[in-house]
Design the sequence.
């Protein structure tokens, strides 16, 4: 046991994309604040943010059908789609600022253009997709979207998916070229390297075991070296709990009243990955389908071109599943130890309400390779088992809380939970995820630093020109921002060669 103690202005727990983004924003806003990062793994971005643990979709609602909901009167509600798109525009603006300031050397290292497509089969879904297309394509944020129900056109767009396809039902797709594939793992590492060179103290193999408030209102963290088991105490005026799936336990340890009554439900993920260059060369898009009945929104099947370390591969999935771990490298006791007297009733209610979801997830875990191949063959009719391997993805911990919809309601979004005095904040949930990191971290700055936000505003606007304005009220601003971020991030100008 060591008695070493340190004091800093800010501690970021966890070296994932969220802490990387908050650290990078703070370094630009207040360069002289001392920041320490505490991470239990050996390197940055090993959990959900890692490129093999998520799908790398720059979520902007260009293809995800669950962000546009059909209303009882048959109209399509696009409000969620617009919100997610605007949030991704904030991320692209901040990344562009970092590129222009030479804080990111080459955007190609983490972002590439990949068309985003939706693909549906059957009369009902084709009608829905057409209506969705009509509702979105008039909106300046979704300009350039195309719709087709012509199999010949679809052969041009998605040759691998159309090869050997038996067409008994109507089929249709939408396509938009401004989609992206983002390597969030690479981006996380790039941002932490940059922070390290700006004197941010990044400590790996350090597990935060406990968090306590001190008499002067700061936070003292008990931190254990995972190799030597020695313990140190680190104190800070502000703590961000960016532990991904590990955040709920840490929030509970802080004891803040805002964290009471909240539980977590872990959903694991698996991808089928194809690295066979002949197959990979026949597909260049992220193609999202409809979720199966009873499936949670995060298990919408999709076939994605991924670009990792300059090599292309295809990901299919994710297949959701159940594991009691809250992190991929977590403990089998994570779920049970997250049940506390204050969230017991909420958790039990959620358990009763979500029996069918749990059953669905357990069945998904038990799927044989043949069954998974059948799901893949809905997308790639002639897929061969030898070309596809299974890869375990990250864990997502969905928030459970009491809402107007009832006790123990499962939430599929993200939520910032912060203390009333703004001295500590945690991020729970995982969707839309890494794509919206900048928007979520701006929310934290607003909630936790209200005394500074006015003085920071000019700098925030320099980094993120659309900060504080709804882009939809200013179509000219949308055009300007989209053109300039596309240029800086290398997302415009070239059309990727389509496979033959
Ligand atoms: C299957 C799947 C697919 C996804 N697809 C997409 C997608 O296509 N697009 C998208 O935008 N998002 C996607 N996401 C979501 C996205 O990956 C996450 O929202 C994002 O990576 C979360 O980042 P984070 O920094 O909060 O957490 P993480 O990346 O999980 O980082 C948390 C870090 O905290 C550390 N930690 C935890 N507890 C402690 C502790 N006690 N002490 C010290 N360190 C600790 C962990 O080791 C970890 O390094 C997907 C997620 C999954 C699982």
Sequence:
């Amino acid at each position: 046991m060591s008695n070493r103690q340190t004091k800093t202005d800010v501690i970021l727990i966890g070296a994932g994309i969220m802490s990387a983004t908050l650290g990078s924003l703070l370094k630009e806003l207040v360069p002289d604040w001392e920041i320490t990062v505490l991470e239990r793994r050996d390197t940055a971005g090993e959990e959900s943010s890692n490129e093999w643990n998520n799908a790398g979709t720059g979520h902007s609602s260009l293809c995800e059908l669950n962000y546009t909901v059909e209303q009882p009167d048959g109209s399509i509600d696009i409000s969620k789609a617009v919100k997610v798109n605007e949030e991704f525009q904030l991320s692209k603006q901040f990344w562009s600022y970092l590129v222009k300031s030479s804080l990111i050397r080459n955007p190609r290292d983490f972002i590439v253009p990949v068309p985003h497509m939706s693909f549906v089969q059957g009369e009902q879904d084709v009608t829905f997709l057409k209506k969705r297309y009509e509702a979105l394509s008039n909106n300046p944020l979704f300009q350039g979207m195309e719709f087709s129900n012509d199999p010949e056109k679809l052969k041009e767009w998605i040759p691998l998916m159309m090869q050997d396809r038996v067409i008994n039902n109507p089929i249709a797709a939408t396509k938009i070229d401004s989609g992206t594939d983002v390597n969030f793992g690479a981006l996380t590492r790039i941002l932490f390297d940059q922070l390290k060179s700006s004197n941010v103290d990044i400590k790996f193999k350090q597990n935060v075991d406990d968090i306590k408030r001190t008499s002067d209102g700061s936070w003292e963290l008990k931190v254990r070296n995972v190799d030597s088991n020695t313990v140190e105490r680190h104190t800070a005026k502000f703590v961000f709990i960016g532990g991904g799936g590990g955040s709920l336990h840490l929030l509970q340890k802080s004891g803040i009243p805002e964290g009471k009554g909240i539980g977590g439900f872990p959903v694991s993920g698996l991808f089928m990955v194809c690295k066979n260059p002949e197959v990979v060369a026949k597909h260049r898009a992220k193609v999202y389908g409809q979720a199966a009945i009873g499936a949670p929104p995060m298990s919408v099947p999709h076939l994605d071109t991924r670009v990792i370390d300059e090599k292309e591969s295809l990901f299919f999935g994710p297949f959701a599943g159940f594991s009691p771990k809250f992190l991929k490298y977590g403990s089998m006791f994570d779920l049970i130890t997250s049940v506390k007297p204050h969230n017991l009733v909420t958790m039990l209610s959620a358990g009763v309400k979500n029996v069918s979801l749990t059953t669905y997830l357990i069945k998904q875990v038990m799927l044989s390779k043949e069954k998974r191949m059948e799901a893949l063959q809905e997308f790639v009719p002639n897929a061969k088992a030898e070309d596809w391997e299974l890869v375990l993805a990250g864990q997502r911990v969905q928030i459970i809380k009491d809402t107007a919809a009832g006790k123990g309601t499962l939430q599929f979004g993200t939520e910032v939970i912060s203390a009333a005095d703004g001295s500590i904040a945690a991020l729970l949930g995982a969707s839309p995820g890494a794509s919206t990191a900048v928007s979520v971290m701006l929310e934290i700055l607003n909630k936790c630093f209200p005394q500074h936000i006015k003085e920071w505003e000019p700098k925030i606007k320099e980094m993120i020109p659309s900060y504080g304005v709804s882009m939809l009220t200013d179509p000219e601003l949308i055009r300007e921002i989209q053109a300039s971020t596309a240029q800086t991030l290398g997302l415009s100008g070239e059309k990727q060669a389509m496979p033959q």
Q: What stands out?
A: Confidence is low (pLDDT under 50) at residues 495-500. DSSP finds 15 helices and 22 strands in the chain.
